[in-house]
Amino acid sequence: MVKLRLKRCGRKQRAVYRIVAIDVRSRREGRDLRKVGFYDPIKNQTCLNVPAILYFLEKGAQPTGTVYDILRKAEFFKDKERTLS
């Protein structure tokens, strides 16, 4: 099973996270299938690759709780509902 989850990058006390599609059995810093965005909690910046995220969600990938919240704040699901209607 594939999940969309955060992968920690950056240095000490200055964490930056990549949003990645990764196999459930892999560890946090393990090999990812594809990078689909990034999130900087300090600057509150988000960069998303929408076509890649849609691809993985359509294939059955499940976002973790934190990634789901990031996508919701970026109004990702509102755009998705509009395209489906």
UniProtKB/TrEMBL annotation:
Key words, A-Z: Chloroplast, Plastid, Ribonucleoprotein, Ribosomal protein
InterPro entries: Ribosomal_bS16, Ribosomal_bS16_CS, Ribosomal_bS16_dom_sf
GO BP terms, alphabetized: mitochondrial translation
Pfam family membership, one: Ribosomal_S16
Residues spanning the membrane: none
CC per GO annotation: chloroplast; mitochondrion; small ribosomal subunit
Gene3D superfamilies membership: 3.30.1320.10
Location in or out of the cell: Plastid, Chloroplast
Location, primary (coarse class): plastid
GO molecular function: structural constituent of ribosome
Family: Belongs to the bacterial ribosomal protein bS16 family.
NCBIfam families noted in UniProt: S16
Protein name per Swiss-Prot or TrEMBL: Small ribosomal subunit protein bS16c
Organism: Joinvillea ascendens
Gene giving rise to this polypeptide: rps16
